[in-house]
């Protein structure tokens, strides 16, 4: 288990990440968000305009901190990677204060909403423009191109900063933990395909919504793919021993897991099992899973 570092954290401070990027940490730490959600302001420090990526939770102090980081520039776009409640709820109040359009991922309304351990979806999210894979937003000295990466959520996007080779990865690839994939919207097959898509790219660095910058992104992504395949192999081995409910996988697969994270682990195993079922390798009846 990853330990959250001791305080103080740079909550509310505009940190220089690279010449075109500032980072502002939101005041929403938790076992699922690490020290909090990281909002990014992209644009020349003394230029006329900028974009805001993942405005975060609707917390007045955080919105004030974003406005301070904008430093008088025109906000051309408020861009959301996905619509979990720690990422997009500040979009509307920030748009009201800046006049900027909300741009990025599509809105998402689930037909069913199973109990979930991660941040739930933001039903208030209403974009002015949805970016498709490969579409871009441009400002003075900066270009942000959408990279569709479904899996963590079906509407997840990353944003590539073309001028510097940086990729803003939201929750798809994070600097502190693997991403949680939670059905019914999260899809393990899509998630693995999105990781393979990033592995084929040549981004210089990843800036995620939680945790430190990722300086060796392809190495990390390769490791994440290996980790997920290892989990799948564990599940298949356990199914080979005996049919079992999801809860019976956790003690064998997650040693010393914080009890608060057990629901997330169960959802992750469920996502793997659903993917295996789609591939004809497992099935379930009455809550009990078995191999084929």
Automatic annotation (TrEMBL):
Start and end residues of each Metallo-beta-lactamase domain: 36-210
InterPro entries in the cross-refs: LACTB2_WH, Metallo-B-lactamas, RibonucZ/Hydroxyglut_hydro, Sec-metab_biosynth-thioest, WH-like_DNA-bd_sf
Gene3D superfamilies: Ribonuclease Z/Hydroxyacylglutathione hydrolase-like (3.60.15.10), Winged helix-like DNA-binding domain superfamily/Winged helix DNA-binding domain (1.10.10.10)
Pfam families: Lactamase_B, WHD_BLACT
SMART domains registered for this protein in UniProt: Lactamase_B (SM00849)
Name this protein carries in UniProt: Metallo-beta-lactamase family protein
């Amino acid at each position: 288990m990853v330990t959250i570092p001791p305080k103080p954290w740079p909550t509310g401070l505009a940190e220089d990440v690279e010449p075109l990027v500032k980072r502002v940490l939101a005041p929403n730490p938790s076992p699922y968000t690490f020290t909090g959600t990281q909002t990014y302001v992209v644009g020349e420090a003394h230029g006329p305009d900028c974009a805001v990526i993942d405005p975060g939770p609707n917390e007045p102090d955080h919105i004030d901190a974003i406005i301070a980081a904008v430093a008088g520039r025109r906000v051309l776009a408020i861009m959301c990677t996905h619509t979990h409640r720690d990422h997009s709820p500040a979009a509307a109040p920030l748009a009201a204060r800046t006049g900027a359009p909300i741009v990025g991922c599509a809105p998402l309304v689930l037909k069913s909403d199973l109990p979930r351990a991660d941040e739930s979806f933001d039903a208030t999210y209403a974009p002015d423009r949805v970016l498709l894979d490969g579409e871009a937003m441009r400002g003075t000295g900066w270009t942000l191109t959408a990279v569709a990466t479904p899996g963590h959520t079906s509407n997840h996007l990353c944003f590539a900063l073309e001028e510097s080779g940086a990729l803003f990865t939201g929750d798809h690839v994070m600097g502190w933990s693997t991403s949680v994939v939670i059905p019914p919207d999260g899809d393990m097959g899509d998630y693995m395909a999105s990781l393979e898509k990033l592995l084929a790219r040549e981004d210089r660095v990843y800036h995620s919504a939680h945790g430190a910058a990722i300086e060796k992104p392809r190495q990390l992504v390769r490791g994440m793919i290996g980790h997920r395949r290892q989990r799948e192999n564990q599940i298949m081995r356990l199914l080979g021993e005996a049919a079992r409910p999801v809860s019976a996988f956790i003690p064998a697969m997650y040693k010393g897991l914080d009890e608060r994270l057990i629901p997330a682990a169960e959802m992750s195993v469920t996502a793997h099992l659903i993917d295996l079922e789609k591939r004809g390798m497992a099935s379930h009846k009455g809550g009990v899973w078995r191999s084929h």
